[in-house]
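Changelog note: in this version the structure field was regenerated for every chain. One regenerated record is shown below for reference.
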Amino acid sequence: MSWLYLIVAGLFEIAWAAGFKYAFRANHWISAATLAAMIASFWFLWLALRALPVGTAYAVWTGIGAAGAALFGIVALGEPATALRLACIGLILAGVVGLRLATP
């Protein structure tokens, strides 16, 4: 269950990173949703940390957030999808999967 909590935390990490670009300047609903996603992300990370090592959980959480935010930028915001950028996102995801496989 801890890994599921960690994945959910990572998804909320993506949501608040995406919302942060527009929060605090567009409208109050985007700001409120961004803040709620931040709180949810930390909450689910805390739930995961009850059973997972802190180093692994933090690295996976930030890896999901970083790769997901970069992919969101490419897909939704029209940011460049260069081969090098996609390869680097792949390396982040490989690290996340490697940490999952290396942690009981």
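Spot check on this record: The CA atoms of residues 63 and 93 lie 7 Å apart. The chain has one domain: 2-102.
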